[in-house]
DNA sequence: TTGTCAATTGTCAGTGGCTGTCATTAGCCT
DNA sequence: AGGCTAATGACAGCCACTGACAATTGACAA
């Protein structure tokens, strides 16, 4: 961001995003129109769509940051860890630093509110799930390289990630319908669920 | 479907669905407008939306049938089976009968084509994934009742289903990008992946 | 059979997300 | 200063979807 032009662009994008998130959280996602956002920032509607591919992209922008953060955490895991353990450590440890990462962009409370909104807004949930497919593909690639296997012939990277991702998405959802909306609660729920995956897959749940 | 009125409604719905699927598969999902469908059936656009909540619902109608079929298969599993084994058997066995179930509505080939279209069309994939969240919730409820546990306090039903669902969605996706577009190939891939989940979650993938 | 009631449909007008196009503006660089 | 290019605004248009109201059509009883 050297030139004036680039700084201006940056500021416009930030203004659009900040305004969008504020309107979403105060008025609701569906009740907020793109025109509302553009007008509040005093740009044309067309300009909004030059910065964001759609209304959803603005709403999911914060999630995107955490996704990138998580992927980076996975990449930085020491190579001696087993695949699933690396994933587990990446989330658990990634969460310790997530607070700062988000706070650099927006208040954490805003992020948490958006998370809940994503889970309760059909259009956003759909977009979020579709995005996670891509993320899982990337995660599988990271695992495959880590372990030195070929994703095209060995299904294990994708399988491991599919299982892990399934648990993660369940965590998000259950967190959003719970009553403790803190980052710590989410972290605790993640750890708890990952611990219980084994038992849940075991032979029988009944105590005989 | 006793009265004339009900029969007429049924016929209209079938005509809309049949026409929609035909246009989707020949022209493509996005290049087909709701107006095209309505016009081909000679009803107003408004009528289409009285039968389908949206364009997506028509496109996913066949999937919905297989989902219902699969859920029924799970319900009919003998209670002595362990949870995951019941799910596994339900898919494997459900597939033997799926052919007839679908053929009663539309050619299987059409169904398979739509499956691939769902995976390759962002809007449809998103809608499909969002729907799977609901399906998984229902499946968890079935498992919980089977095993006599309380979903609100015991996370195992949802966990088991999340893991299983993750593998299922991976199967769908990998099948759609493969080269064998048959029902048998899908069945085989399912069995194969379910077999390999264990190894994929195991300590290490490296041969030392 | 006819008249009444309710369900189904068509029409119309409108909203909102999103895109293409083109002229205008505004920063950049020599 | 002046030409070049990137960013924006303005406008027109497409398409999915909805609400409201009037017209039609089948159901059912008198």
UniProtKB/TrEMBL annotation, chains A, B:
Domain spans labelled HTH tetR-type: 10-70
Segments crossing the lipid bilayer: none
Domain of life: Bacteria
SUPFAM superfamilies: Homeodomain-like (SSF46689)
Pfam families reported in the protein's UniProt record: TetR_C_14, TetR_N
Keyword Transcription in annotation: yes
Protein name: TetR family transcriptional regulator
GO molecular function: DNA-binding transcription factor activity; transcription cis-regulatory region binding
Known DNA-binding region: 33-52
Keywords: DNA-binding, Transcription, Transcription regulation
């Amino acid at each position: 961001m050297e030139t004036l032009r680039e700084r201006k662009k940056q500021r416009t994008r930030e203004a659009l995003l900040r305004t969008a998130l504020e309107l979403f959280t105060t008025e609701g996602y569906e009740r907020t129109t793109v025109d509302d956002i553009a007008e509040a920032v005093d740009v044309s509607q067309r300009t909004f769509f030059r910065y964001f591919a759609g209304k959803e992209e603005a709403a999911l922008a914060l999630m995107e940051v955490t996704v990138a953060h998580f992927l980076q955490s996975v990449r930085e895991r020491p190579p001696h860890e087993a695949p699933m353990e690396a994933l587990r450590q990446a989330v658990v440890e990634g969460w310790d630093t997530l607070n700062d990462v988000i706070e650099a962009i927006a208040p954490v409370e805003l992020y948490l509110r958006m998370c809940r909104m994503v889970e309760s807004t059909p259009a956003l949930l759909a977009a979020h799930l579709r995005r996670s497919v891509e993320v899982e593909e990337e995660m599988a690639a990271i695992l495959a390289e880590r372990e030195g296997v070929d994703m095209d012939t060995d299904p294990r990277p994708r399988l491991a990630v599919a299982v892990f991702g399934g648990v993660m998405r369940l965590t998000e959802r259950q967190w959003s319908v719970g009553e403790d909306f803190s980052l710590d609660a989410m972290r605790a729920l993640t750890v708890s669920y990952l611990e219980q995956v084994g038992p849940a897959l075991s032979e029988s749940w009944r105590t005989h």
